Amino acid sequence: MSPELLEIFSQNVLAKLLRVAEEALEDNNPPVAYPEFVPQRGENTGKYFLREKYFWTCGFFPGLLHTLLERAVKYPHVFPFHGHEKANRLFDTASIRQQLASLCDSWKGPIQEMASRTDTHDLGFILQPSLRKDWELTGNEKSLQSLLIGARSLASRYEANVGAIRSWDVLKQKDVTITSMTDDFLVIIDSMCNLDLLYYASKHLCDPNLAEIATTHARTLIKSHLRPENTTGNFGYKGSCVYSTCHVVNFDPRTGSIKNRRTAQGYRVDSTWARGQAWAILGYAQTYNWTKEKEFLWVASGLAEYFIWRLESAPGCVEMPNTGTNGRENVGRYVPLWDFDAPIDDQTNPLRDSSAGTIAANGMLVLSQSMAALGDTVLAERYRSTAIRIVTDTLECCLSKEKAKFVDSGDKRYNGIHVEDIEEGQRFDSILKNATANHNSYDLDRYSDHGLVYADYFLLEFGNQLLRLGFI
Questions:
Q1: Which of 106, 214, 383, 437 has the smallest count of CB within 10 Å of its CB?
Q2: 86/66 Cα distance (integer angstroms)
């Protein structure tokens, strides 16, 4: 395994997350605000911005802590961190694990209480990153019950006339205001990644209706959100076409007909917003795993092929000289632009979205496992190696150079272990930089080129996938 990938399991990662988890609880316990993004410039550079707890990203920071807890419980060879056995022996691993478990409890408490929300479709993103791991690691029945309640809350947003779950109740931008619950029905491609919660709960509850809702939703979005493209797949791809994605579709809730298509976070309605494409890859790969319906497998594969093609055919300015040790002359080609069709304003520093890369890599790794199970070793290796290439390139280009370390200081925080910046005064709270939450010129909440909590979450989750597969 490359040294770049091992950074996912480093002391820097654990130290940063423990420090943020402790400090962000000050005057915020139990949490009413959760880490969302880290500015790369301006007055608050390097420090996490905390967003109110009902925002859709609230589940990812508790999820980050639980990815570390999963390592502590199941993979002690990478906990507290990988590859520094002598350094590891300086610390009380049990104390760090207990501290981490305590922090997990503090951050997941308000998340458990959100299961009954019916005002959002994002319950998969909110609940699963922490509560599913908590249930599976500790047998905490409260977390399981929150997942099951959350699935039924999500299913309450399903409309049979449309064959889909309502994503947003409202869309407000400079050029549009959509607020009617009787005339409009907004569905976004991101919704594919909330279906996993429905399938999971369906099995626990022996309730096939939840799975049927998820499957119907996935079929509807193939017709409404996926755009067949002329680009043909390579290396053994057997699908009839490849797919790009539309971000937002507004349906008539009475007839199920499409009223219009839009984008809320991409460049324009007919462009391919990179993170939307990534959500689709992961969502359809998960849907195939639950249903074993080949249609979903080839859709996921067609989405992945298009994503790969856009990476490999991107302009030369995406590449930068390699300052690392892997021997390649240039890096950066496999870190996606924020939107594959948006104009590049700065040829020396094109705007990227590291979160799109880490999400897509997770989807491709899931897809690789499915292909391997079917005996398709060519595509299994293609998606596995591409996923690793994306994450490796992302670490080489976007890993924050401002790193943290543990110091045995006698401080009672962290059970006597204190966290310091490796270079004094050089602090950056997230692991990755160069994510873009929203760069749509018409949106009222536009921010780009920053650290982002779900870029880090899917980076660490990718590492845990590698652990589950025995690659680390």
A1: 106
A2: 25
